[in-house]
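Good morning N.,

You mentioned wanting to compare the apo and holo forms, so I went ahead and generated the holo version with calcium ion. This is what I fed in:
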Amino acid sequence: MRIVVLAGGIGGARFLRGLKQAAPDADITVIGNTGDDIHLFGLKVCPDLDTVMYTLGGGIHEEQGWGRAGETFAVKEELAAYGVGPEWFGLGDRDVATHIVRTQMLGAGYPLSAVTEALCKRWEPGVRLLPMTDDRVETHVVVDTGEGRKAVHFQEYWVGLRAEPTAHAVVPVGAEQAAPAPGVLEAVAAADVVLFPPSNPVVSIGTILAVPGVREAIADAGVPVVGLSPLIGGAPVRGMADKVLAAIGVESTAAAVAAHYGSGLLDGWLVDASDAEAVPEVERVGIRCRAVPLLMSDTAATAAMARAALELAEEVRA
Ligand code: GDP
Ligand code: CA
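and this is what came out, ligand included:
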């Protein structure tokens, strides 16, 4: 079975760990979000790709969900001593090595997809990890400041400002001119099923779908497309997805997110067992829906979610 998964960071990575356990023989291709990427201190940082790579490769800081286990912050402290910021970005020493290798390879002319493949030789994530594009795409968020509105980099909004200022728009800058990375469209065309993990619908999955050709390829693949809600009881399980959903005019409910993807894209949708009343609402818009526990409390619980998604895909296929 060939499975294609569109993934952001923590939500995507944790789901993938469960999926690998649920479908050990499957051939899994991950299309990773690169809209969160940022250039810091001359280094190219790809937070979502790294979260997937570290999580599946056993290098993740488990409790935090991002960054390296056993991390130290000497580089960050030394930069701060020089007064060089941003101070809000948690750049760890071990993590810096990844960014140095990536930046060096990009500088030598390798595309991000080749660099990601090279980094994965060390981490052996057990999936094929592809960036959504080799081109530069940067998500910007239009926020209220004291002196009117301005656009800031997604990382500044999310990490630096903790999504506190009201967001009015989310713009994947560069997406319109971007091309899917080599292998992305081919993987979708060859897939038996496409899964949307409980990743952020706006700044993770929404950004991947904004790369021209990706949404169309998924809609036209003629295979079941099944997603899992990142919202439980009308709120994100962690993070601030409700803020960016509000910015694009989507209500923070499992049903509203399904309707936002739409029946043209999505065939099946899983909501949490506590959101069972959303099932008929989702089915009314033409998306098959089931309510099952959606808390990724451990790998076994997450594997059960992945099995439920694959079962729903089989139902859709039949
Ligand atoms: P990010 O790039 O690190 O923000 O990660 P993703 O975009 O992949 O995933 C973020 C989303 O995962 C958030 O909107 C959370 O609500 C969702 N999430 C995190 N943990 C869980 C969980 O245990 N269950 C569900 N259903 N969603 C979760
Ligand atoms: Ca992210």
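The mean pLDDT is 97.

Happy to go through it together on a call whenever suits you.

Best,
F.
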